[in-house]
């Protein structure tokens, strides 16, 4: 059986998720700003071994602690190949005009930007459906471009939530409760996002629990009936 822990960053409220197996294996998804201390504390308290650090995409609010996580747990950051270029310069690729918004938020949160920018080890996978296994944790990676070129959904089955075994999909900034990710940032594309929502998100089973990059959890079934971007009531 798998367990789930959510740690929400003070930087733009990005969600970092920990999925752990009874065998002690743990996977960290989206090492958001300032979360590594809490992740390390949880891992040590429960005697876990971090086998992988994954990113749903390369935006800075989701990988601000990537370098710290890689150093702390001696594993590479794993990200889709199409978003790998963002890891080397997460601020510049998000804000090429130099508005300074995200660095300002990071500074306000007491985070030293220079200590969190470039992980020493990065591994990539292709945009096609990819299966990964970490101990007893199976992860299915689904390419979901549109918010960024390499945005990825991570499917994980057999996670205990409120005493029930559930199937999860970690959606990053592709799908949220009641809305979807923005497409006006560098690398975003409305037509590509619409294709992702129709063909990738649209193909997911309704019982899947959605764990988004920001905000509360939801389900695919709920979003199909209430999310205006999935019902056709709103357009990107």
From TrEMBL:
MF-aspect GO terms: hydrolase activity; metal ion binding
Cofactor list: Zn(2+)
Metallo-beta-lactamase domain ranges (all copies): 13-214
Record key words, sorted: Hydrolase, Metal-binding, Zinc
SUPFAM superfamilies from the UniProt entry: Metallo-hydrolase/oxidoreductase
Entry protein name: Glyoxylase, beta-lactamase superfamily II
Cited CDD domains: metallo-hydrolase-like_MBL-fold
Top-level lineage group: Bacteria
């Amino acid at each position: 059986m798998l367990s789930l822990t959510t740690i929400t960053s003070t930087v733009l409220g990005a969600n970092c998720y920990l999925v752990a197996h009874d065998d002690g294996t743990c996977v960290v998804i989206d090492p958001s700003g300032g979360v590594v201390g809490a992740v390390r504390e949880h891992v040590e308290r429960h005697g876990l071994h971090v086998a992988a650090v994954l990113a749903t995409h390369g935006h800075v609010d989701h990988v601000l602690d990537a370098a710290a996580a890689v150093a702390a747990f001696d594993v590479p950051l794993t990200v889709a190949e199409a978003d790998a270029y963002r890891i080397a310069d997460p601020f510049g690729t998000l804000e090429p005009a130099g508005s300074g918004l995200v660095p300002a938020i990071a500074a306000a949160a007491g985070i030293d930007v220079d200590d969190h920018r470039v992980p020493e080890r990065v591994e990539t996978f292709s945009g096609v459906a990819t299966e990964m296994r970490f101990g007893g944790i199976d992860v299915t990676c689904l390419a979901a471009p549109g918010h960024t070129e390499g945005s990825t959904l991570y499917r994980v089955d057999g996670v205990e939530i409120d005493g029930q075994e559930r199937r999860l999909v970690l959606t990053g900034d592709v799908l949220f409760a009641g809305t979807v990710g923005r497409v006006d940032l560098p690398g975003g594309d409305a037509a590509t996002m619409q294709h992702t929502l129709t063909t990738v998100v649209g193909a997911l089973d309704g019982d899947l629990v959605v764990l988004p990059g920001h905000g509360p959890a939801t389900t695919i079934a709920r979003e199909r009936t209430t999310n205006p971007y999935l019902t056709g009531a709103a357009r990107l």
